[in-house]
């Protein structure tokens, strides 16, 4: 779980902006104790106008974990996560994340530009006290980075040198675990690398956007536990769906389309798939008092398909220990279904964490959210600088009896669009 995070000089974020998930105590189902007297919010919600920078914070949080774990195999490969604030191009991006992995706290700080990790430090608290995991500084192009390892890791000198030799200037020290096999003395590095890879996910899930709905449903169908979960969540969502099953349907390919595919500059495997006479699909069984009937996936509503896409995320959250970022959650979903989705997560997960952006302000009227204002941030883009600023919901000094929802709606908390006149002048 993430304890706190800050970033500077990234997309719309100019000065340092921070999200802290630290809670005062075990107030509700939103809070979990991850270590002795350490309480963190399981849910974080970002509100703000369109283009205010909500998504950019999610991307930044995602990027720091990618940077920690994804290696480069060529020294001239650009660091794709370097997307500086428009007025500070050339200056390094700086990020920090403090998080708990397998009950151990880690603090990671990194500074980087498009070509180099300039500086990174990873500390951890294996026995409650702060210890160095490793520290690394950029020296020069074509020169090995200066890397120092903490003595508590007990890494042999020969292994340390191998790590240095394989750490290119454009990726983190920890990312070496993904491209080089080491002996057992790098166990702490491998364990942390495996945890981040398994538990910290891409924005909107690992490829769920790229995966088709049919593929998502087929994968769930092949896993009996996940299939049972999908069935239950579809039934409880009042969609009239009882179950579903994968099917194979005939495909109609018109002669002109066939000719274009055959003559097109496409890989043979792609051509073969596009010209296949059949296609995988899914049929849903709908239940009524008069009897059950089948509905093909192409007739399902946009909201139903969106709900199916995020069920994979929910399954991971309630069955394991995961960190997910979902952008614009609530889009295409009825409000009651959205709050139900979040409630299932909160009441059935242990130490998973979900950070979302949303335009569904009605969530703020829920007692569960209003009483846990530290789990909400309001995002505003300053006109004079075009930079995003993030304010936690409990930083405004609102009396506990005042509604967070009403305060936001009337503009007390900012983060609302300032709209012009509804009248349009098209005269020259």
TrEMBL record:
Listed PANTHER family: ATPASE AAA-TYPE CORE DOMAIN-CONTAINING PROTEIN, ATPASE-LIKE PROTEIN
The protein, known as: ATPase AAA-type core domain-containing protein
Natural source organism: Prevotella multiformis DSM 16608
ATPase AAA-type core domain location: 45-364
Highest taxon in the source lineage: Bacteria
Entries under Pfam families matching the protein: AAA_21
GO MF terms, alphabetically ordered: ATP binding; ATP hydrolysis activity
